[in-house]
Amino acid sequence: MKRVLAVLCCLLLVATACTSGGEAVKLRVLASPELADLGPILDDLRGDTGIALEMDFQAAVNTSTALIPGRASHDLAWLSTDRFFQLEFRRAADKGERPLATTTMVSPVVVAMTSAKAAELRRGKPGGTLSWADLADAAASGSFRFAMAEPATSTSGLTSLIGVATAASGTGAALRLEDVKCDKLRGFRVGHTVTADTSAALADRFAERQDADAIIGYESTLLTLNGSGRLKAPLELVYPRDGIVQADHPILLLDPAKRDAYDKVVSWLRSPETQKKLMERTLRRPITGGVGLDPRLPASIGNSLYFPDDPAVVDRLLADYGDPAGRAPGRVLFVLDFSGSMKGPRIAALRATFAGLSGGPGGGFDRFYRGERLTVLRFGGKVLGDKEFIINGPQDLDALRTFIAADDFDGDTAVWSALGEAYAKAGGYRKAEPGRDVSIVLMTDGESNTGQGIEEFLRAPRDSGVRTYTIRFGEADPAELDRAAKATGGRMVDANSTSLLDAFKEIRGCR
Q: How far is the C-alpha of 247 from the C-alpha of 121, rounded, in Å?
């Protein structure tokens, strides 16, 4: 019996050596670059389970199709989020069965900014809290510059963009195609002055330059940057009140033959002991109950935003957001009714609308942005005045508001003649600058009673690349405005059922 026990002990020692210090089970893992900080945790995993994860760090946005069964060359994938893969999986023709996925930890996308800039932006805000709309408003004015990873190549960058765009839609639901049809992010894009292909590279670039006001990314990355000693002063983390998107760091099983090893890895990672280690060492939030929150992590992070469930939404969003970097800002022609019926509360509403779009209350994502080109035509029975504006600073917005403040009203209303003159101007702009988008916004509160009629306008030649978006106010004919808008590829909004500011915001920047 003693000999048998001795042999068993020897065998046990050999087995232990193979699983703790020797070459036991190796799994190749396609991993998001954000997870490069897991080195010490992976050493513990190997020591406790005998399973070694060989991490292959790649940008998950670019490799989502490689996760589809039959195309994968890795055993597992460990991503910041697999939501992009889920979208690719949904539209893949030969997708087969979706791989098993298990959440391991959570980190929200937030904003870290200098204390001085945070204090500046919070002035006058309800409860001293900031929203994504507040940040977009400041970026559009040129007073807020931020770093964010490139959405086309980085999971953190795309997750950040989806969070901002979801907040911009104002629906409280997942983004739909119609929510990104009108570009609400051009003003926000103005402030995006520092970028990189990954969140780690972005943190390095931000620390080297320190010439931006803020950096947008995963909470864990930003807290780690704060504790690195590379910054002049710690940044203040801001959790926008209109919601955030969270990364849930799932592990995916790509090779079903490795299911036993996968289960061991997942069980070890989700144990309370490991969850506590992950939180303390990487500052990601635990998903297992009973693990007390690290004091460096705020207990409340606000409400979570939904992720889109249509891959076409992400495609459209990336195309829209990428455009401003390589294309000139657009031009909008505002054709505004200054007939006598607009006097009083109606003209006050119009002026308040332009004040809001110029950076006053209510502008947010839809405000005029730095570099934007505007032309305003005031009309009654004829064009009463027109002026071009390029928004480069407060003085240009002041000049715009002054032009809207004119009191030269007219007794007649020549809607279609004024729109015809706007098209003549738009055609000239398009010929002079063919790379610049041009659109028209027509606002009127009454029926046309002089000049050409709608039939004459519709028969006249015009640039088919210029769309008109009409805003009905007061007693204007909705059928005619809707007809003219649709004939040019635009649409009508009825300000009587909402507000003039909301109507302008609804069609702001449409193409």
A: 27
Cα–Cα dist 24/26, whole Å = 7
Are 91 and 230 part of one and the same domain? no
Element (H, E) at 101: strand 101-103
344, β-bridge pairs = none
The confidence score (pLDDT) of residue 181 equals: 62
Same domain, 122 and 219: yes
- List the structure tokens of 218: 């995963």
Q: Is residue 301 part of a domain?
A: no
Q: What averages of pLDDT result for each successive group of 10 residues across the chain (511 residues)?
A: 45 40 80 90 96 87 60 87 77 69 95 96 87 90 93 82 85 84 78 89 93 95 95 95 90 93 97 96 93 91 84 83 60 96 96 90 79 94 96 92 95 96 95 88 96 95 92 95 95 91 78 50
Buried b (16+ CB within 10 A) or exposed e, 20-50: eeeebbebbbbbbbbbeebeebbeebbeebb
Contact 368, 142 (CB under 8 A): no
The structure's pTM equals: 0.78
In a shared domain, residues 91 and 112: no
Q: Residue 43 corresponds to which tokens in the numbers above?
A: 């050493």
Q: Helices marked H in 191-252 — which ranges?
A: 199-209, 219-226
Q: Judge contact between 463 and 425, C-beta under 8 A.
A: no
d(CA 12, CA 303): 51
Q: Contact at 8 Å (CB) between 148 and 215?
A: yes
CA distances to 208, 281, 334, 407 from 225, rounded to whole Å, are: 12, 13, 46, 55
Q: Give residue 167's domain range.
A: 107-246+307-320
Helices and strands counted in the chain (H then E): 19, 17
In a domain, 18, yes or no: no
- The number of angstroms, rounded, from the C-alpha of 1 to the middle of its chain's C-alpha atoms is 70
Distance CA 254, CA 251 (A): 9
Looking at residue 440, what DSSP letter applies?
Answer: E
**DSSP letter (8 states) at residue 445:** S
